[in-house]
Design brief:
10 strands, single chain, 43% helix, Phosphorylase Kinase, domain 1, two-stranded antiparallel ribbon, six-stranded antiparallel β-sheet
Length: 329
């Protein structure tokens, strides 16, 4: 364990003092991406939790609290099962924790969510799971269109400017790994095409609103007949069809994607209308997400395990996808 990771774990352990947990509670690192997520096991109560330690500067405390507001509303309105937030001893849900020689970080504690992520290699079962995912997405989008935001609600926009444009949250795709002159020329064509098609598609209230923005397979847990959605850390305002693009994150070139897209559409239409123009632009949103992930890998490969593992090969794969997309779009 490197020194920084050891300090963050120290902070996670320190955070447990703010909650009604037994003194023997332990933390185990589960994931490092934007944030560090730990499983917390409390032998005294026999309960498990997920502790999310936020990366400084990525989300404000008010943005995090706004995320939790939407989680509450989705669960209360019966839209989808979401993780239950655990308040600290003083009632706070977003807790600032610090240890010596490290800037304070916000943490949130959730009840541990049971279930397993869908398996793309599960044959026909994967099709059914994507139909479920489409239906879940439709329910969330219907809710987002009708939900009145509480006072102080604030979440980021995942529009063109803040994804692959000049104000991209994850940096510039031009700084992606393995980016040579030839790759840059091709992806510049892709960028311009995406921008033009998004302008034509528009951002009216039927097409653009509050979305999960990272509803990939790892964030969907199936427990028998129950489906739970987790990790709303990137939720914000974007095109509703962007949610489909996130379901195939990092696997956009998998040969089953067209089949799974059809399943997602069927599931979506079982709940809500989906106009042909939106369906036709699903490949555009997939390429928007893919180019955004090139930027994410370039800016996160030094600390996010998944970004480091994907490396320059992800840019090469993106170029192959861009060639195919530009041949028809």
């Amino acid at each position: 364990m490197n020194a920084e990771l050891a300090r963050i774990e120290e902070l996670a352990v320190s955070a447990l003092d703010r909650y009604e947990l037994g003194a023997s509670a332990t933390v185990t690192l589960c994931n490092v991406s934007e944030n560090h997520t730990y499983r917390v096991d409390d032998p005294v109560s026999g309960r498990a939790f997920a502790l999310r330690v936020h990366r400084p500067g990525y989300r404000t405390a008010q943005q995090i609290e706004s995320e939790l507001m939407w989680l509450d509303a989705l669960r209360a309105d019966g839209v989808v099962e979401t993780p239950q937030v655990v308040a600290a001893d003083d009632g706070a849900r977003v807790v600032s924790v610090s240890v010596p020689d490290m800037p304070a970080r916000n943490v949130v504690l959730f009840e541990w969510v049971a279930g397993t992520a869908p398996d793309l290699d599960s044959g026909a079962a994967a099709v059914g799971q994507f139909e479920t995912l489409g239906a879940v997405s439709a329910r969330m989008h219907l809710h987002a269109r009708s939900w009145s935001h509480p006072n102080g609600f604030t979440r980021p926009h995942w529009d063109y400017e803040h994804s692959i444009g000049p104000d991209g949250y994850w940096g510039a795709w031009q700084d992606g790994l393995g980016m040579g002159a030839e790759e840059r020329r091709l992806l510049e064509r892709l960028d311009a095409t995406i921008a033009a098609r998004l302008r034509a598609y528009g951002q009216d209230a039927e097409r653009y609103g509050l979305v999960h923005a990272d509803i990939r397979l790892a964030n969907l847990l199936i427990d028998g007949e129950l489906v739970r959605v987790i990790d709303f850390d990137d939720c914000g305002f974007s095109w509703f069809m962007y949610d489909f693009a996130t379901t195939v994150s990092f696997m956009e070139d998998h040969p089953r994607v067209p089949e799974l897209q059809d399943a997602w559409i069927r599931g979506y239409r079982s709940v809500a209308e989906l106009d042909p123009t939106s369906v036709a632009e699903l490949p555009t949103f997939v390429m928007l997400r893919r180019l955004l992930l090139v930027a994410w890998i370039g800016s996160h490969h030094t600390f996010a395990t998944e970004a480091a593992e994907l490396g320059p090969g992800f840019t090469a794969g993106t170029c192959a996808l861009a060639d195919a997309y530009l041949s028809t779009h």
